[in-house]
Amino acid sequence: MLSDMQVRKAAAKDKDYKLTDEKGMYLLVAKTGSKYWRLNYSYGQKRKTLAIGVYPEVSLKEAREKRDAAKALL
Q1: Is the pTM of this model over 0.70?
Q2: DSSP state of 46
Q3: 12 contacts 32 by C-beta, under 8 angstroms
């Protein structure tokens, strides 16, 4: 599970990378330094990805709430 401190300190690297949280949600850190919340889920036997928002506009707490709401719709 991610902490707010880990999210804040995530820095850009040579390649994009992911910091996993839980229940399919992760933070995608782009090589430009941008941070995007994403959710992987399965629907109809296909793997899909939902864009939740951009950090810091969407905090860790808000991202988890949006993840739970999206999972409830499935």
Answers
A1: yes
A2: E
A3: yes
Phi, psi of 63 (to 5 degrees): -65, -40
Beta bridge partners, 17, equal: 29
Q: How far apart are CA 74 and CA 57, in angstroms?
A: 25
**Nearest-angstrom CA–CA distance, 67 and 22:** 10
How many helices (H) and strands (E) in the chain? 2, 4
Q: What is the layout of strands, in order, in the sheet containing 17-20?
A: 17-20, 25-29, 35-43, 46-55
User: Which runs of consecutive H residues, i.e. helices, occur in the chain?
Assistant: 4-9, 60-73
Count CB neighbours of 19 within 10 A: 13
Report mean pLDDT in 10-residue bins for the chain, 74 residues: 96 98 97 97 95 98 98 93
